[in-house]
Amino acid sequence: MTDSRPVVTRFAPSPTGYLHIGGARTALFNWLYARGRGGKFLLRIEDTDRARSTPEATEAILKGLTWLGLDWDGAPVSQFEGRERHAEVARQMLDNGSAYKCFSTQDEIETFRETARAEGRSTLFLSPWRDADPSTYPDAPFVIRLRAPREGQTVVRDAVQGDVVFGNDQLDDMILLRSDGTPTYMHAVVVDDHDMGVTHIIRGDDHLTNAARQQQVYQGMGWDVPVFAHIPLIHGQDGKKLSKRHGAVGLHEYATAGYPAAAMRNYLARLGWSHGDDELFDDAQAMEWFDLSGIGKAPARLDFKKLEHVSGYHIGQMNDADLMEEIAAYLRETGQNPLETVQIARLEAILPVLKAKAKTLPALLEQGHFALVARPLEVEEKAATALDTVSRGILVELTAALQHVSWVREELEAAAKQIGESHGLGLGKIAAPLRAALAGRSSTPSVFDMMLALGRDETLARLQDQAG
Length: 468
Hints:
Layout: E1 8-11, H1 21-35, E2 40-45, H2 55-68, E3 77-78, H3 83-96, E4 99-102, H4 106-118, E5 143-146, E6 153-158, E7 162-167, E8 175-177, H5 185-195, E9 200-204, H6 208-221, E10 227-231, E11 234-235, H7 251-256, H8 261-269, H9 283-289, E12 300-301, H10 304-317, H11 320-333, H12 341-354, H13 361-367, H14 369-372, H15 381-384, H16 389-402, H17 409-422, H18 427-439, H19 447-466
Parallel strand pairs: 1-2, 2-3, 9-10, 11-12
Antiparallel strand pairs: 4-5, 5-8, 6-7
């Protein structure tokens, strides 16, 4: 399936809540497809449901996309603001015969359906006004309905699902314009996608049935039909439709859990799409490789262990300056205080050590806790057991010995080793009281890495606090 027009994709969320992880993946697929082909990625807010649409939800969606690192071209389009254009197209379809006025009331439609049910017939409403003589039109409210074909088939040529065939006897004459002059969502979507020049509609396969009816609107107006690509939904690890019982479903929950945005882009790209056996990649590779043919037909399964693996890889690969920015953004996202100058300096010094093992940003900060706390340290109960009388005496000796060594790892290790040997102890035995004194904890990075990050003065001060 080919399309010679410049690629234009879109993401069109409804602002009725937070940005769902499935929506975030849909946005990512559209962004990758457009950016990888030098095309445009547009954003439309489908806010026609005025009762449920809120500015706060719109803001949450924009914030989520920005956090994820997806940029869009131009200003976001409001579907509601295009309602006059939607009505205009419905009237054009009246004029060209691809739509008609229907004066049937809700009571009449329900009576039709009840009778059809009683007689065992299809309850698909067949309007008596479809071929009525305009001279018989009453002076009454009416809707504008699509004049859908009654016979034959509508075939949606889908880049993911293949050809999907719908019997036209199963598709009704859907309403385009309500009696109050407002457009239906199904009609507005087609008009907006046409006017925005969208060439590829990449969205969840829960919209597949909509595609058949929307395709008929394109054909009714004589417009080019975009390439459809309906992607399977995301399921939980148990294979069932994703819900809150599976864990985080809102994108914001992943931000507050401390997964870097680059890791989320990598992980979400692999949810339902593949490029050979490649699991770990950057944005440039994703843009180069991403294609609709790589999207599978089966639902993807959310796997938090795999996400942690991807997250750890990206944290390890990130340069220190970018990682510090990610940490600052994480602290803002979770409402924590920004780091002070001395904390930043110490954390930057230990960052190469921390990022080699951390799977998430909070895990990294947990291991770097020693660099963020001020004296006097609170010593955790487990760590305090290492500070007995003998250990405190060793800390006194070590403090004295470290006064005069060069502050490099080899000399720090040599000094500690010498003190340990004088007591018949290996380095491992004196590491526990050192951890307690330097970090107040029993699980920390190497004591020598901590010494280097803290510097001479802070290290000696912390040792002196616990010596005696």
